[in-house]
Specification:
21% strand, wza like fold, elongated, three-stranded antiparallel sheet, alpha+beta, Outer membrane lipoprotein wza fold like, 5 helices, five-stranded mixed sheet, single chain
Amino acid sequence: MTPVRPACAFRLPITAIMTALALSGCMRTTGPVATATRGDLDSIAYGHPHGQPSQPDGGAAGVPHSAFASASRRTPGGVAAPITHAAAAPARSDAAYHLDAGDKLRVMVYGQDGLTNTYAIDAAGSITMPLIGSLPARGRTTAGLAAEIGARLRRGFIRDPSVAVEIEAYRPFFILGEVAAPGQYPYVPNMTVESAVAIAGGFSPRARRDRVTVTHADASGTARLVVPPGAPISPGDTVLVGERWF
């Protein structure tokens, strides 16, 4: 039997002790643990994409807002679409409106209180003002009439007149046929056939509601048109609501 050297005898216990200490240290070492912030927890629970910031109140309260925002920006095919805003319909402009008998005008001559007044266009299509007398207004625009009034006042009455004309009341429209109260009514800007029928008390039980006949007269002549209920009408138009056959 080979004798064991004293140095080796001491080395073996020391090596065993060091190995045990090393193994015990490994057992106490804490490995990496996955942690999640509040936003990540919301992502796991409610399906937010990883890394997307959560809503300020977090939790389920942020889910409906995100869902509606996503839906408003995507088409049914999943392709992103721009968000558009509907603009308001433009109001009727008097600049292109042609005057006729029955219209009431507010004529303002600045600095001349005796001339500033309301004037009605008579059946002949004219207005009558002090100093200048009768003045044709039918077929003119408000701007054209103001220019004509200024030109006449400039002829020996006022050196440099400033004139403005605006429509105070439009000539009436007429509605006949199958409505509750046919007759003549004041025109309201931006009026349609539907609003005209409503002013006349609505359709009668026998009325044909899908289309009506509108008679429109202007400087070029008279036209009769068959239009749907949403069609616009003009001052002086005659709306005829027909009777349905069944």
